[in-house]
Amino acid sequence: MKALILNSGIGKRMGALTQDKPKCMVEVQPSITVLYLQLTHLENEGIKDVVITTGPYSKLLESYARENFPDLNFTFVKNDVYKDTNYIYSIALAEDVLRDDDILLIHGDLVFEPTVLRDIIKAEDSSIVVDTTLPLPQKDFKAVIKDGKVAAVGIEFFDDAVAAQPLYKLKKEDWAVWLDAIVDFCNRGDRSVYAENALNTVTDKTNIYPLDVKGRVCAEIDNPEDLENCRKVSGKLLGDKDKKSVYIVMSTDIIHNGHIKIISNAAELGELTVGVMTDEAVSQYKRFPLVPFEERMKIINNIKGVSKVVKQDSIDYTENLLKYKPDIVVHGDDWKTGPQQNIRQKVIDTLVSYGGKLVEFPYTNDATTEALEQNSRKVLAMPERRRARLKKLLELKKPISVLEAHNGLTGLIAENTKVERDGAIRQFDAMWISSLCDSTAKGKPDIELVDSTSRLRTIDDIMEVTTKPIIIDGDTGGLTEHFQFFVKTLERIGVSAIIIEDKTGLKKNSLFGNEVAQTQDSIENFCDKIKAGKAGLMTKDFMIIARIESLILEQGMDDAIERARAYVDAGADGIMIHSRKKSPDEIFEFCRIFRSENKDTPLVVVPTTFNMVTEEEFAEHGVNIVIYANQLIRSAFPAMQKTAETILANSRCMEADSECCMPISEILTLIPDAD
Ligand code: SPV
Ligand code: MG
């Protein structure tokens, strides 16, 4: 049996869709053309010989068919006068290759479910597809049935007629009769009529029967509206065996219309698996998810069109792509620019490595989506949400990366700065409100002179414009009674942790070490302070972290370890070990000893002097929190000083403007509008 596909038509009614390709190459779904569907089904049914009549863009059609279906034997017959003739003439041109065989005659713009083709191939007699469930179409083919047989096919018949589609199986003997009639018509100049006009003159000599598809899809695509309808049912057209595997990744916890749309688009392309990003992966490049991972898995699994959900551990798709090898990855087109560009490129490269492809749909970011996102940021900034998040992050990630902030502006930098590195997007996890920077920003020494009221003011400024968790530098904690009170306030307003150092009296900044007089508190006294602080807490979220100054004050490793044990026993939720050495050796040594006896209590470091150590190395030594305690103020000061000097040196600000300053247009948009 040979297939004959008629593709000489211009497809004028398809408008712009056929301006650079034949109608059969219009995509029903990205990368899935009408011809692709037809040839796939034919190949699956074991049909090897395919005759295609061509007209416009014949070369394009030929190479597309040969490239995509290398195992089929194609014969292409071009109708050069396709503009002035109908397919009756194209068939006549192909006469020689169509003789003496059973023929499957298919119009090039016909889409159908695979079972329709299977059934017509299996039919014992010559058959034409009809559908008795459809009303009679005004302008499309109908078949007149007399005594159970086809008596005529055309658009003009209404009596005894059923809706018909130009998909025929013609046994050799019936086809010979029709083909002769076709050739006769053409020889006498009737080249612009339907081939069915020729058939209708010989139906008394043929035995063609209707094959009722009873509502299954079998339809011609004549115009963009037909195409749109066809897209809605394209899932059916593929058939299970031919279904592509499709993969999308979801990191969102607010599912809106845009997501449903992209899921349904993706599901139309095939069997859809959704990679749900873990909380850890999401929090690495976006705001922290409000809905936890397990919940999100369940919700997404129940969305229509989703066949399966799997876990994706990272923003980098590579691992899952190599594991599941989806044919198609679907994404919104928003990641073509911005920090996700490289991740997209990596996806493309990985897909290319095994023959998959990326399909991008327009990204919907409408006002409602924006408002929902704004709202979730507000929720994240609420005291109880923000406070609890540090402990959650500690469970998810090692180490947590924390940046100093001393006002709203530096808070925004800690909140919003993102970079892409090695296929991952990196951002800070939390903020450190340093006593050094809070004091320095006010032009004051770091000696607990800036009182708690003022510190709370700074915290509030930062909280107003950010959502990330806050760790406050509590200096020595002051008097135990005052400390307890302060801790309660911090807990109530949504701070996640306080770090207090085991010094007493007039505290000075640790980086002075023993160059200035500093006194370390007794273990007993400091433990009492920790206990008092803990006793006043209302939640399990707030952490009191004990900071050991033994290495700063050169009291030795044994003292540091002894204190660590005592502070943990007193209830400390974490230990900060500080050093002002350039080498990290003593810090690493402390970590080694501490971790050998305590696996869980979070360890905090402030690598101001041992600045060569990366976060990854700290993690290897058991560190949980790395605080960059003063870099923003230290970089801002010289920049501002240079600007001041440049103005003075030039007695005008033009040079400072160009050398030192960001444009006014940028500073005006740096701060988001109030909503
Ligand atoms: C601070 O940032 O204020 C600190 C850390 O306490 S350090 O300055 O290194 O002592
Ligand atoms: Mg400090």
Please characterize this protein's 3D structure.
The chain is α/β, with parallel strands linked by helices and 675 residues long. The chain folds into four domains: 237 residues, Alpha-Beta Complex (Spore Coat Polysaccharide Biosynthesis Protein SpsA, Chain A); 125 residues, Rossmann fold (3-Layer(aba) Sandwich), CATH 3.40.50; 248 residues, Phosphoenolpyruvate-binding domains (TIM Barrel), CATH 3.20.20.60; 36 residues, no CATH class. 42% of the residues lie in helices and 21% in strands. The protein has 27 helices and 30 strands. The strands form seven sheets. Strands 1, 4, 5, 6, 8, 9, 10, 11 and 12 form a nine-stranded mixed β-sheet that branches. α3 packs across α6, α20 packs parallel to α21 and α22 packs across α23. It starts with a strand and ends in a 5-residue tail after the last helix. The mean pLDDT is 94.
Q: Which tags fit this structure?
A:
alpha/beta; Rossmann fold; TIM Barrel; 4 domains; nine-stranded mixed beta sheet; eight-stranded parallel β-barrel; 42% helix; binds magnesium ion
Summed up, what is this model?
This protein has 675 residues and is α/β, with parallel strands linked by helices. The chain is built from 27 helices and 30 strands.
Radius of gyration: 37 Å
Known CATH architecture of the largest domain = Alpha-Beta Barrel
Instruction: From the 3D structure, determine the CATH topology of the largest domain.
Output: TIM Barrel
CATH class label of the largest domain: Alpha Beta
The fourth-level CATH homologous superfamily of the largest domain is Phosphoenolpyruvate-binding domains
Terminal Cα span: 69 Å
Helix content: 40-55%
